[in-house]
Design a protein that fits this description.
It is built from 3 helices and 22 strands. It is mostly beta strands. The protein has 2 domains: about 230 residues, Acetamidase/Formamidase-like domains (Jelly Rolls, Sandwich), CATH 2.60.120; about 70 residues, Roll (Endonuclease I-creI). It has a 10-stranded mixed sheet with strand order 1-2-6-18-8-16-19-20-22-21. Strands 3, 5, 7, 13, 15 and 17 form a 6-stranded mixed sheet that branches. Strand 1 and strand 2 form a beta hairpin. The radius of gyration is 19 Å and the shape is globular. The protein starts with a strand and ends in a 6-residue tail after the last strand.
Length: about 325
């Protein structure tokens, strides 16, 4: 862990990364006060995904591989957790995503047999490497196309309830985790229900760019560095993660059945409209049909994701 003069920084490494799981029993790497900021770096890439020269490989990656062993080469490398002093189960953690910067000059995307939205269509294992240009904020695909970069952390989570025990990272849940929501870029606020005292916030699964759906299971997988302000909210109660961009409110849900995810996320948006505007549920349902965008976040993580976006101008009384 390294510290800048004013904001503590946690760098991904063997002592700061938990690979493939969340657990309320994980001891915090750092404890900060409510409203304080922290900078966290992430890494991505199991041993077979390391790129050839001239790409630069972070020394942290092979060190993390060596420390975890082959049995851990599944799921996401998450940096943390960070405890927030005074956070209690039942409260909400407000995560202001202040900045997100590239940590690598490369990213990768991989197609695996029996995975993704079309598991039977692509029988070959096929990785590609993508050059990331931080100055232009583009990723150059091997066949010459450029993708605009819009980096975000695919995984942002608090610890699950202790009763859940140790759980794998791939399916997103009420504690957040592998949400893969491309709207969670710098400038967005994420709200997570707290299930364990201290909250225990972790991040990982850096994405340079991703389409809604993440249909082949991977985005531009890369390492990122983010600065977050973590604030305990005792005036909020949430059952599912919620997000706020400068222009929109976003309700989210995760379920193995997309239809059930739609029901959960849409009901949350109707609840939000009623609470913010005083409209009744019939009016809020109509407004949702006219002005809200219901989107498929991802379809590849076991529990599929739905998010509903509504322009905040409709939430003014």
């Amino acid at each position: 862990m390294h510290k800048s003069p004013d904001v503590p920084r946690i760098d991904a490494g063997p002592a700061t990364v938990h690979w493939g799981f969340f657990d309320a029993k994980l001891p915090p790497i750092l404890t900060i006060g409510s409203g304080d900021r922290v900078t966290i770096s992430s890494v991505s890439g199991s041993p077979e995904m390391l790129p050839p020269p001239p790409f630069k490989i972070s020394p942290a990656l092979p060190a993390i591989h060596a420390a975890n062993g082959p049995q851990q080469f599944f799921g996401h490398m998450c940096t943390g957790p960070v405890a927030v002093r005074g956070a209690k189960a039942g409260q909400v953690l407000q995560v202001d995503i202040e900045t997100i910067d590239l940590h690598y000059d490369w990213g990768y995307n991989v197609i695996r047999p029996l995975a993704g939205a079309l598991p039977d269509d692509f029988p070959e294992y096929r990785p590609i490497y993508i050059t990331l240009d931080q100055a232009r904020m583009t990723g150059r695909l091997p066949w010459g196309q450029d993708i605009p970069l819009r980096p975000f952390f695919g995984v942002m989570a608090v610890a699950p309830p202790a009763s859940w025990g140790r759980i794998p990272t791939p399916p997103p849940r009420r504690n957040g985790g592998n949400m893969d929501n491309k709207e969670l870029v710098a400038g967005t606020i994420l709200y997570l229900p707290i299930f364990t005292d201290g909250a225990l916030f972790s991040v990982g699964d850096g994405h340079g760019a991703q389409g809604d759906g993440e249909v082949c299971v991977t985005a531009i997988e890369t390492g990122l560095v983010g600065t977050f302000r973590l604030t305990v909210r005792d005036d909020m109660r949430l059952e599912w993660p919620l997000a706020e961009t400068p222009t929109h409110m976003i309700t989210m849900a995760f379920d193995p059945d997309l239809d059930d995810g739609v029901v959960i996320a849409l009901r949350q948006m109707i609840d939000l409209i009623c609470a913010r505007t005083g409209l009744d549920r019939y009016q809020a349902y109509a407004l949702s049909s006219l002005a809200a965008d219901l989107r498929v976040t991802q379809v590849v993580n076991g529990s599929k994701g739905i998010h509903v976006m509504l322009d905040k101008r409709y939430l003014k009384r």
